[in-house]
Amino acid sequence: MTTVLEREQLADCFKLLAVFFYEPEIELWEEENILKRFSGMLEKTAPEIFPLACRMREAAEEIDGKDMAIDYAALFVGPFELPAPPYGSVYLDKMQRVMGDSTMMVLDRYREAGLKVDVQEPPDHIAIELEFIHFLLCAEIRAARQNDREEEQRLQNLRDQFLSTCLVPWIHPFCERIIKGTTNPFYTNLALCLEAIVTRLSGSELSTVKAQCLSR
Description:
- By secondary structure, this protein is mainly alpha-helical.
- The protein is 72% helix and 0% strand.
- The longest helix has 33 residues, at 149-181.
- The protein starts with a helix and ends with a helix.
- Mean pLDDT is 89; it is low at 205-216.
């Protein structure tokens, strides 16, 4: 990824990915054409991932909003044991608990970027981390347009560090648990989209599970 345009497109993808990991609001998604916008972005930016976004859109059109909310809660909220906890520390810390040492590392990266985090969810919730990547990409774009190479490089380094230490290490097990924990095609394809897009930005290798699913 080298051009400002590519970064703009990926920034938008991360922003919308984050939306899908909050409680689903299908009517609002429809009003704002969020799924159509998401698939349209991927068609231009990452055509190999585009079919997954199309399947997400088709699934959202076919499922009742209440059923989608139930499936979302069963995966990510509770009240019972969660198939796919959406918090990085559950996967990265030995104690496998929320608000562990890795959560503090995430907070440090937010502060380093000049952000103050005041949210209800723990700061290593997947949606918040995706929004942070969107924030960093947008800041990089501003620096590039202002020809501030030093600031652009600082932000790129911060993004690369955040990806390699805080996000990439838990994306694959998280996505695996989503796929194994639901029969809802919206969320199974969302998991595949998430891993593919993070893989694209980070430059890491495709996982075996994702590569197999993309070939179907």
